[in-house]
From TrEMBL:
The keyword RNA-binding does not apply. Residues 1-21 are annotated as: Disordered. Its cofactor is FAD. It is found in: Membrane. CDD domains: FNR_like_3 (cd06198). This is Ferredoxin reductase family protein. Its main location: membrane. Gene3D superfamilies: Nucleotide-binding domain of ferredoxin-NADP reductase (FNR) module, Translation factors. It comes from Streptomyces phaeochromogenes. The lineage of its organism: Bacteria, Bacillati, Actinomycetota, Actinomycetes, Kitasatosporales. Pfam families: Ferric_reduct, NAD_binding_1. It is a multi-pass membrane protein.
Length: 468
């Protein structure tokens, strides 16, 4: 490591003590999402008469079935837009928050879709009790485009079931991601019957509304999930330069490329990577930068946790890489306080290593707490010490297994039961810190709880979950 790689790069220091964040682009985004739901309900009321139109049992079932279907369609479109990787949406909400809201909206749309299916099935059964089986066959198979809708519904059910936390634990990331992509096929399969059979799609202006909504979701997905990553991969021409073992099962991959500064990548961000090293290259994996980005070089550090990450150790110099990104908001752009506290567990040290390298701060203004299970897994220990010595970072190593599942501390004779007090003892002025946290989800939750108990404001805690 040379001195030039660990000195600050002249970023302007952010203003201190700005307090809570004001109005951001996230506010109108949320308002537009709510407005789209209100618009759907308004369309239903105008076309179906609202509650006044629920005069008989079968009509009530059909009308409510239409409403649940419309709401499910609207929320599915919102899901697609949320994770379409629109740059200003990513910057406003951050990938973690977008992922959580995508999941909440996904489960809401799923149950609305189930309600839509059940209500229409009951409506047909009520109308033809003597020919119930034929009625159900027609509504799910033989009516116009209904077979496609049924197949699409089955695909969406599969996606939701595999998204439940218990199911995700049993799947490799690559398998889960491949199954998740079937949601696009499911939405596409349900699309035709919506426009052919939906009573709310027969008016010209309602058709225009829905065509614009679907068209917008398709356009942003095409541009930001396919076209932009393809262009960046071709333009920047990233190739593997070297692969270095950092710890058992953990390697750092350094890549060189053309005009990488044009991507305006910041320390703390991540890319979705695909290495053209043979079969399986199409499955992308998210890896965070583990060194400050340069105009011709990027570095990522990968811990083997599945087929894709295990292959990283076998990469050879010259291997071409395709990228999506940069993504994530765990960057110095979040700063609003005069001090920085960075807390990492395990491989969560990767964004912290990059952040302390090139973020603007004075000597004594930054503290890094690094928790790891064993000394052999202390990734970047020497690099961290070198950066700390040159830039005046207080470096605290906490080796050993966690004290408890609900604690962020390492077990040991010196630990205290009060997690918040331990953090307060380590960083007395924690209330004046921007706190950056990266690690497993349960551990992050414990750190958040301790930080709040120690006096930190929730808006000053910035996280990146090391999970999918």
């Amino acid at each position: 490591m040379t001195l030039s790689t660990i000195l600050p790069r002249g970023h302007r220091r952010p203003p201190a003590e700005r307090g809570r964040r004001g109005f951001t682009a996230a506010d109108p985004l949320g308002a537009l999402a709510i407005l789209s739901v209100v618009a759907v309900v308004a369309l239903w009321v105008m076309n179906q008469g609202g509650p006044l139109g629920l005069t008989t049992a079968d009509r009530a079932m059909g009308s409510l079935g239409l409403l649940t279907g419309l709401l499910a369609s609207d929320l599915m479109i919102l899901q697609v837009v949320l994770l379409a990787r629109i740059p200003w949406v990513e910057r406003s909400w951050g990938h973690d928050l977008l992922t959580r809201r995508h999941r909440w909206i996904g489960f809401a749309s799923f149950w609305l879709m189930i309600g839509h299916v059940v209500l229409f099935a009951v409506e047909r059964a009520v109308r033809a009790p003597d020919a119930m089986l034929d009625a159900l066959v027609r509504v799910f198979v033989t009516d116009s485009w209904m077979l496609f809708a049924t197949v699409g519904t089955v695909l969406l059910v599969m996606v939701v079931v595999t998204s439940i936390r218990a199911a995700r634990r049993r799947l490799r990331y690559e398998s889960w991601h491949l199954l998740h992509l079937y949601s696009y096929a499911g939405i596409a399969a349900t699309f035709p019957h919506t426009f052919v059979d939906g009573a709310d799609f027969h008016e010209t202006w309602t058709r225009v509304y829905w065509w614009c909504l679907y068209g917008f979701a398709f356009a942003v997905t095409l541009v930001y999930r396919i076209a932009l990553p393809a262009w960046r991969s071709l333009h920047h021409r990233l190739r593997v330069e070297s692969v270095v073992t950092e710890a058992p099962g953990t390697v750092s991959v350094t890549l060189t490329g053309h005009r990488l500064d044009r991507m305006r990548t910041a320390s703390g961000q991540f890319f979705v990577w695909r290495f053209l090293d043979g079969p399986g290259w199409t499955r992308g994996n998210p890896y965070t930068l583990s060194a400050a980005p340069a105009s011709d070089r990027l570095r990522i550090t990968i811990k083997a946790a599945g087929d894709g990450s295990a292959r990283a150790a076998r990469l050879t110099p010259g291997t071409r890489a395709l990228i999506e990104g940069p993504y994530g908001t765990l960057t110095a752009r979040q700063r609003s306080q005069p001090r920085m506290l960075l807390i990492a567990a395990g491989i969560g040290i990767t964004p912290m290593r990059a952040l302390i390298e090139d973020t603007a701060y004075a000597t004594g203004e930054t503290t890094l707490i690094y928790r790891y299970s064993e000394d052999q897994h202390a990734v970047f220990a020497d690099e961290l010490r070198a950066i700390a010595a040159h830039r005046g970072v207080e470096l605290i190593f906490l080796p050993g297994p966690r004290r408890a599942d609900t604690s962020w501390q390492a077990a040991g004779p010196a630990h205290l039961d009060d997690d918040a007090q331990v953090l307060k003892n380590l960083v007395p002025d924690i209330a004046r810190c921007d706190i950056y946290v990266c690690g497993p989800p349960a551990w992050i939750t414990a750190v958040r709880r301790a930080a709040r108990g120690a006096g930190a404001h929730r808006d000053h805690v910035h996280t990146e979950e090391f999970a999918w």
